Each structure stands twice: as C-alpha cells, then as structure tokens.
C-alpha cells in the first residue's frame, strides 16, 4: 500500500511538472507574440509619423535595404526623391489612418493638401518584413503614390484662376486685371566704360531706382548680353518715358483706376513671400494676394481656386495615371455700394485738406462714398514701391497711410441734435423753454474751478431752435446737466456706442467716455455738445445721425451691394419732426452756421468744431465738421471732417459743397 501511494504521488508530481512546463511555454509564446506585435506597431507608427512630419531622412532606417536596392535607389536618392516630389507639389497637412493585419500587411489611407487643394483617401499597402531583431517596411515606389514605378516622375500643371474684380454699384471697376509695362535693358545696348556708366546713372534717376540695384540686376548669373533684364515694373497708368537703352515689355498687373481716391477702400495686392506660402501651401512664388482693404477682406472670394493636374509620368514622358485634377474657379466679382464718380468728387472736394468724407443712404445704410485724405497710390504697391517712394509717403506729416474713414474723432456740435432728441424724449427739453445766458462763457458753480464752457455767439435768450441754428454749447451743456447722467446715458445707449459693425473694415467701436460713468459734471456737460471723451468715426457719425433723416430709425452702414438693411428704432417720429425743421434753418436762416450751403438744395445740416487742446484757456487745433442730409426724401446723408481747418483756410461746410451738388443731381 505504501508502494502504491508513493507511485501515485510520483505520477502526480510528474503531471504537475508537465503542467508548469506547458504553462511556461504558453506564457513565453504569449510574451513573444506581444513583443512581436509591439515591434510591428512601432515601425508602422514611425513610418506614419515620418510621412506626416516629412522627416524623410528617417526613411533608410525604416525600410529594408533589399527593397530599396531592388527599386533602383540608394539611401540618399530615396530621401531626395521624397523631398523633390512632396516639396514640388506642396504636400502638407497630412492625416493618416492605418492598421497592421495578421498577415503583416501595413495598410493606410492618407489625406493631404497640395498646390491644387486637398487630396482625399489615397490608399497604400505594403508588407512588414522581419529584419534581424526588428521589422522594416518592404518599400516600392507605390509608397510614394499608388501605381507608380521606380523610374516614374510626378508632374503637375497649374491653370491659374483669374482674380475677381471689385466694382462699384453701377459696375464701374474699382480694382481689375490689366496690363502695365516693365522697363528693362539689354546689356549690349548699354555700351562700355564711361558710356555704360552714364547711361546707368540716367536710367536710375529717371526710373527712381539706384545704380546699385541696376548693377545687381545685370550681375545675375543668367544674364547674357542679348537678354532683356527687367529693372522696374511701372504702376498702372504710368507713362513710359523714352530713356536711352531702356525697353518696355507688357506684363499683367492689378489696377486701381481711382488711385488715391479709393485706396483706403480697395487696398492693394502684393506678391506672396515665404511666410505666406508657409501659412497656405496652395500659394506659389509669383502669386499675388490681398494685403489691405477689400483686397484682403475678400481674399478668398477674389482669388478663386487654381485648376490643374498632378499626374504620374513614365520614363518615356507619357502620362501613366492622374493623381489629382481640379477645374479652375475664377474669383468672384465683389460689388460694393460705392459710387465711383461720387467717390472721386468727394476726394477732389477736400482739396489740400487732411480729413474724411462719408456719404450714406439713410434708408438702406449703403455707403456711397468713403474718402480719406491724404492718400496713396495703391498701383505703386502692386508693382513694388521703391524705398524713396515709400519714404515720401511715410515721412508725410499728414500720414497718408492712416484711414480717416475709420479714425475716431470728437464729433463736436454735429452731435447736438442727438442730445436734443434725448432731451425731448425725456421731457427735460421743450421747444418753448428759454435759457437766460449771459456772456460767452459759463460754469455751473464754483466747484468747476477755472473751467468754463464757451460759445461763439452771444445770445441772451436761447431756446432749442436758437441753440441748434447758432450752435450754442452752453444751452446743451445745461440741458444735459438737467437731464442727469442716468437719463442722458440711457438715451445714448440706444445708439450704437460700443457696437461693432458688420463691415469689411477694421474699426474700433464708438465710445461715450473712457469709463462706464462720467467722473464729473464737467464731462457730462462737455459730452452734450460733442466733446469730452466722445469718439466717433465718420462712419459712426453717418450711421448714428441717420436717425435725423430716417424718422428716428437708425440704419447700420453697409458696403456690400444687395445686403439687407439692418435697422433699429431709437427715437419716435414726433421727436425728429420737431428737430428736422430747425436743422433746415441751420442752412436757410442768415444766422445759421451752414448758411453758405443755402440754395444748394433742400437740405438740413449741422456744423461742428471740435477743439483739441491740452489746457483751459489755450487755443488748440480745431477740426471742422458738418453733417448734411436731404430734407426732401432722405436720399443721402453726408459727414465731412477737415482736420486743423484754420491751417487749411476752409471749413468742412465750404469744402463739401461740390459733394452736395453732385448728390442733388443724382436725386433729380
């Protein structure tokens, strides 16, 4: 019995050993399979990451040497092949989904951008080969593009889209494509020695370029004695002066026929640089894009999309397969609400003044003119402005690059009808109430210290009509103080202070004051007649003052033709019906501040002067302003500002007359 018991114990132990051994073998197999899978996954991940990052120098370490040699490549040439192809067609933004199956096949789907746009779901498949203690990719040229052979090449053609035009409300071009002339020389025509030197000096002077630049152009490696060497592309509309040894050839360009008159609206285009191409790989050297203005705001719509084809070409120069084919889409035409003739008229009317004129249709919000002066010629920037030409603009003390259309100013007395409207609706201001005012200066009490509010015309008894016609600052200051800040601000907040407009223009919102509350009664009083910290651009003024021409309804400004008018009710019609006849008298009454415009048409107006000074008592720079609108059917409203009008010698009222005359012709 003892023997049998020992025998069974021995058998059980043997079985246990077998079971442990079997478990160990199974565990080892599981461990080995896991490690093998990790190796396969790792090489697959590294291959995908290399493609997405375009780290092609890693390729030799990821592929088998045999497959590379069999394909006819070396470690160096396979790297260069990828760089040339991916770089040539502008591959970027690659996204890849991949998997490794049980048969060691690596399959992946790639989507990426090229110079022609996005290629979606390109399918690849290869084998993972065990290589010593690791796995590597079995490489063929089909891993560049499916269907590609080792000696094939990748080619592409581009069919350039035509940039869309910017046109005014009547279809007249504000920006269009045309030709200009490029000045250059054929080296042999320059002669030698002193003759050559003299000709180059003369060319430099007449083309506004430097001798060093000319010599640099002539010294390029490709230049030959009988080849045309470009020196300068002339802006659209420029003359082609006869210069000894200089020839001209036609080149494509973007043109702005209104030149300075519309520069701050249209902006301009310029050639792309390396940074532009890095941001947008669909761009290529030589392309032009919008740099400022509407050209920039509507870049996508105007540029359209280039067409073309990317294809595989055989060693014999035949097309093997198309990879991507895109039909070109020319850019859209952007129609704006501007009237080109009115724009030019308003620009010319400002003469030598620095300032701005904005004309709007109060009922639709359509902006008919947006003038900023002084300005610059955008055609110069398209072809590449010279340093001396740029310096002339940049050093101009009147700052022609500043868009005064969107610059914020104190609106001055042009704001008084708004204060009057708030006062009437609050019940504080009445038509019959008369203020007894003595002298040209006034302060509420001694707490104001030395600060006093001034007026231009001394009138003892001032009612609302007199205050508007003669533009009495003291009257409106007193009305605002009687209303109080809460009531006055409540009225102001019905307008568009603090709001951003839906315009393709960069502009800070209009503001009532620097802080959410007035910090003194003086600031409240000053704001009532358009000074203090009140800031509005000419566009803000046109939009907010539209309530005066539009029965109390404010119309938001619009620059794109066909857009639906956006409005909001601010004042009741009865309020405007009370004020509007008084604004007509600003023009018709002999004592009216805009009486110079009497006879121009049935118009209503409000003039203003905003003084910029550092301290009470000193005389500062004065900006002259005027708001004018059609009193018949509110077909137009114009706002004009003349900076430092005393230096100019003319007020905004005097300078705007040709604009009103033109607008009156349009209404007939």
UniProtKB/TrEMBL annotation:
Gene3D superfamilies xrefs: DD-peptidase/beta-lactamase superfamily, NTF2-like, domain 1, Penicillin-binding protein 2a (Domain 2), Penicillin-binding protein 2a, domain 3
Keyword field: Membrane
Domain spans labelled Penicillin-binding protein dimerisation: 160-322
Domain NTF2-like N-terminal transpeptidase: start-end pairs: 43-151
A molecular-function term among this protein's GO annotations: peptidoglycan L,D-transpeptidase activity
The keyword Membrane is annotated on this UniProt entry: yes
Penicillin-binding protein transpeptidase domain span: 355-660
Cellular compartment(s): Membrane
Protein family per UniProt: Belongs to the transpeptidase family.
Name recorded for this polypeptide: Uncharacterized protein
The species this protein was found in: Ureibacillus sinduriensis BLB-1 = JCM 15800
């Amino acid at each position: 019995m003892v023997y049998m018991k020992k025998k069974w114990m021995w058998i059980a132990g043997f079985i246990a050993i077998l079971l442990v051994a079997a478990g160990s073998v199974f565990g080892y197999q599981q461990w080995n399979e896991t490690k093998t899978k990790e190796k396969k996954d790792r090489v697959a991940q590294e291959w995908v990451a290399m493609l997405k990052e375009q780290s092609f120098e890693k390729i030799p370490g990821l592929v088998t040497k045999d497959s590379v040699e069999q394909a006819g490549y070396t470690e160096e040439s396979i790297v260069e092949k990828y760089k040339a192809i991916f770089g040539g067609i502008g591959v970027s933004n690659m996204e890849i989904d991949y998997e490794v199956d049980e048969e060691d096949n690596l399959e992946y789907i790639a989507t990426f951008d090229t110079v022609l746009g996005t290629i979606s779901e390109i399918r690849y498949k290869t084998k993972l080969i065990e290589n010593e203690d690791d796995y590597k990719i079995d490489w063929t040229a089909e891993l560049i593009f499916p269907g590609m052979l080792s000696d094939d090449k990748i080619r592409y053609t581009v069919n350039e889209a035509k940039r869309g035009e910017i046109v005014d409300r009547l279809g007249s071009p504000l920006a269009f494509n045309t030709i200009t002339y490029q000045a250059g020389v054929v080296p042999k025509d320059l002669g030698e020695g002193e003759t050559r030197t003299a000709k180059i000096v003369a060319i430099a002077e007449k083309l506004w370029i430097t001798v060093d630049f000319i010599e640099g152009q002539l010294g390029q490696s490709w230049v030959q004695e009988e080849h045309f060497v470009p020196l300068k592309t002339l802006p659209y509309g420029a003359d082609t002066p006869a210069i000894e040894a200089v020839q001209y050839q036609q080149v494509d360009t973007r043109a702005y026929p209104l030149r300075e008159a519309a520069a701050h609206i249209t902006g301009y285009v310029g050639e792309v640089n390396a940074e532009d191409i890095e941001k947008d790989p669909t761009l290529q050297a030589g392309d032009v894009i919008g740099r400022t203005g509407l050209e920039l705001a509507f870049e996508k719509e105007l540029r359209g999309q280039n067409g073309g084809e990317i294809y595989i070409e055989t060693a014999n120069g035949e097309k093997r397969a198309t990879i991507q084919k895109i039909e070109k889409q020319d850019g859209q035409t952007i129609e704006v609400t501007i009237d080109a003739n009115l724009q030019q008229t308003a620009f010319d009317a400002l003469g030598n003044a620095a300032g701005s004129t904005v004309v709007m249709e109060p009922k639709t919000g359509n902006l008919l003119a947006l003038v900023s002066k002084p300005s610059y010629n955008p055609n110069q920037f398209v072809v590449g402005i010279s340093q001396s030409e740029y310096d002339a603009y940049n050093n101009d003390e009147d700052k022609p690059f500043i868009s005064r259309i969107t610059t914020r100013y104190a609106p001055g007395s042009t704001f008084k009808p708004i204060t009057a409207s708030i006062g009437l609706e609050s019940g504080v201001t009445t038509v019959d109430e008369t203020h007894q005012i003595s002298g040209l200066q006034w302060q509420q009490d001694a707490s104001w210290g030395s600060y006093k509010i001034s007026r231009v015309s001394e009138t003892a008894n001032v009612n609302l009509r007199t205050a508007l016609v003669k533009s009495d600052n003291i009257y409106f200051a007193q009305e605002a103080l009687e209303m109080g800040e809460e009531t006055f601000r409540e009225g102001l907040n019905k307008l568009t202070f603090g709001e951003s407009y839906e315009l393709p223009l960069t502009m800070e919102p209009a503001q009532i004051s620097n802080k959410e509350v007035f910090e003194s009664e003086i600031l409240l009083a000053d704001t009532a007649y358009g000074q203090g910290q009140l800031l509005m651009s000419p566009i803000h003024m046109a939009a907010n003052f539209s309530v005066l021409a539009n029965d109390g309804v404010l119309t938001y400004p619009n620059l794109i033709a066909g857009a639906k008018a956006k409005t909001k009710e601010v004042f009741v019609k009865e309020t405007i019906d009370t004020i509007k006849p008084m604004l007509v008298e600003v023009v018709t009454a002999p004592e009216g501040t805009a009486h110079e415009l009497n006879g121009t048409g049935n118009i209503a107006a409000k003039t203003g002067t905003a003084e910029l000074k550092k301290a009470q008592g000193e005389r500062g720079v004065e900006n002259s302003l005027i708001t004018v609108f059609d009193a018949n059917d509110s077909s137009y409203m114009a706002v004009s500002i003349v900076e430092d009008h005393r230096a100019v010698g003319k007020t905004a009222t005097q300078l705007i007359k040709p604009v009103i005359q033109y607008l009156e012709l349009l209404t007939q």
